[in-house]
Specification:
Elements (H helix, E strand, L loop, with lengths): L15 E4 L6 E2 L1 H15 L6 H6 L5 H6 L6 H18 L5 E2 L3 H10 L3 E9 H10 L8 E5 L8 H9 L10 E5 L2 H8 L4 E5 L8 H5 L3 E3 L2 H11 L6 H49 L1
Parallel strand pairs: 1-4, 1-6, 4-5, 6-7, 7-8
Antiparallel strand pairs: 2-3
Helix pairs in contact: 1-4, 7-8
Length: about 280
């Protein structure tokens, strides 16, 4: 879902920061577990234990279903339909937010970064969740899985985001995520991934996958990104941009005032002319 006009050039001054959703911005564990159990009951399949259900947060839905014993592609497709019907009704309300992450995304965007969501969740569910929690307007773009097409891997979702921008140097973009799929998906496009330690990764998963750093909380993530993109914290640049914005606003206001004055003068001229004509007519 494109939220704003795109085709912007990514640069060190205007970097692209991609956020995973599940396990990074939001905790959907309760809703995903309930949805998967509902789907498996509808299929008449045995229920996995809690550890397996927890591991389903992050990877694509069909991949999760197909990982279960005795699951065929046909059963998995039916299970996905049951899951999505359930999650659409109950999932967003059962999803909570991790503290500070949306605030960080908002701050990054205010400093000039482009912020996007790249999730393996169905895109419409991602939009629902962000909208419900007042975070949709923070992001320039939200990309995720789609119903009417081949299932997307995390690399596919990242490709969909990158396709909307002009990126010449991979160092000007970074992925933020909590699972190995975020790391490997980013790596397929030459991007680094910063892992977050508050999500659903198993112990050592992010380190083994090759995350360039791992943040313990939103403040630590902010510090990592500040070190990676110091231009975003260049107060002189921010002041100059604000000044340019103020000058542009002043110019617009002056132009508007000039147009209003011209309109008033024209109206006054027209009224005077009309009075002269009326007076002449009365005299005649």
């Amino acid at each position: 879902m494109t939220l704003r006009a795109l085709q912007t050039t990514i640069s060190a001054e205007r970097p692209l920061i991609l956020f995973d959703l599940d396990g990074t911005i939001a905790d959907p564990g309760q809703g995903i577990a309930a949805g998967m159990l509902h789907a498996l009951r509808e299929l008449g399949r045995p229920e996995p234990d809690a550890a397996v259900l927890c591991s389903f947060v992050g990877p694509p839905l069909l991949q999760n279903l197909l990982s279960l014993p005795g699951m065929t592609p046909e059963l998995a497709a039916r299970g996905a339909e049951y899951y999505r019907a359930y999650f659409s009704e109950h999932g967003p309300a059962a999803t909570s937010l991790y503290p500070g992450v949306l605030d960080l995304a908002r701050e990054l965007r205010s400093r000039g970064a482009i912020v996007a969501v790249a999730t393996s969740k169905l895109r419409q569910f991602a939009v629902q969740i962000l909208q419900m929690h007042g975070g949709l307007d923070i992001f320039d773009l939200v990309e995720g899985d789609v119903v009417d097409g081949a299932p997307r891997t995390k690399a596919d979702v990242i490709a969909a985001v990158l396709g909307q921008y002009s990126l010449s140097d991979a160092r000007d973009a970074v992925m933020i995520g909590d699972r190995r799929h975020d790391v490997s998906g980013a790596a397929e496009h030459g991007l680094d991934c910063v892992g977050v330690g508050w999500g659903f990764a198993a112990a050592g998963e992010l380190e083994s996958a090759g995350a360039v750093a791992i943040a313990g909380d939103a403040d630590e993530l902010a510090a990592i990104l500040a070190a990676r993109f110091p231009q975003l914290h260049d107060e002189t640049r921010l002041h100059d941009e604000a000044s340019r914005h103020d000058e542009a606003s002043l110019h617009d206001a002056a132009s508007l005032h000039g147009e209003a004055s011209l309109h008033d003068e024209t109206s006054l001229h027209d009224e005077t002319s009309l009075q002269d004509k009326t007076g002449s007519s009365a005299s005649g």
